[in-house]
Amino acid sequence: MAEQRAQGRGKGGASAPTPARRASDRGRYGRLSRERVLASALALVDREGLSALSMRRLGTELGVEAMALYRYASSKDALLDGLVEALYLELEERLTADTDEAPDWRAGLHRNARATYEVCLTHPQAVPLLATRLLAVPLARRPAAVLRDHERVLSLLRGAGFDEATAAEVFRAFTAWLLGYVSVELRPTVDNPDETDPAFRLGLHRLSAKELPTLRETAAALAEQGGPEGLAAGLDALLDSFTSGSASAASG
């Protein structure tokens, strides 16, 4: 008996460590892949919002232990970056499926903006990540699909004849307008969707008529979405500000 106990002890009399069990990555739908993990994470966020996403919850969705997911996303932040990657991969798919070739650089920017708008409206719960994660991640560490989008936009601008500094300026303005427009489109304005009366539906009774008269008057118009037409009109106005009277840009 003593011999048997001794065989189970290592140096210094301590019990020999047993190897850690490797969490299986074979879930209810078969072996995992990064694409499947990100697709499931995005579907979960689409249904229940970002607050519902955790490694444990995602593991339950996929039928695996949470530890198995760390092979595909090393942390919660990495998983969130993966969701951004998934959005931009979907953007690439939409652009590839659009077989109408843009005739010039402005049309190319409009095409890119419209596809981005469509992706965002398809996955509104994930849209905040386009601001929060890109604010937190340095340029060179962003997902490859994000960097390809940057490259695509900058190539259109440089090909149009903008110099390096101006192309960077237009790129920043284009990105700010696009993400800002989408954020305003998706901002909730309805207070009670079950109400049929527009005033109560918007909750105007909650806004002080004395302190906020202009906001109350404009609330109904603010509740309407601008749609792709508003996106295009604003983008044209923005680009006009850079090309009007400029000899450095192509006439398009």
Could you explain how this protein is built, in words?
This protein is an all-alpha fold and 252 residues long. Helix content is 59%, strand content 2%. It is built from eleven helices and two strands. Strands 1-2 form a two-stranded antiparallel sheet. Helix 4 crosses helix 6 and helix 7 crosses helix 8. The protein is flat. It starts with a helix and ends in a 9-residue tail after the last helix. Keywords: DNA-binding, Transcription, Transcription regulation. It comes from Streptomyces violaceochromogenes.
Strands in their spatial order, largest beta sheet: 1-2
Q: Please tally the β strands and state the result.
A: 2
Cα gyration radius (Å): 26 Å
- What separation lies between the terminal Cα atoms? 90 Å
| Global structural class | mainly alpha
Secondary-structure element order, as H and E? HEEHHHHHHHHHH
Work out the helix count: 11
Mean pLDDT: 88
**Percent of residues in beta strands?**
under 5%
Tell me, what's the shape? Answer: flat
Low-confidence stretches: 17-22, 247-252
What share of the residues lie within helices?
Answer: 55-70%
Biggest sheet, in brief? 2 strands, antiparallel
Specify the oligomeric state: single chain
Protein name: TetR/AcrR family transcriptional regulator C-terminal domain-containing protein
Keywords: DNA-binding, Transcription, Transcription regulation
Organism: Streptomyces violaceochromogenes
Domain HTH tetR-type: 31-91
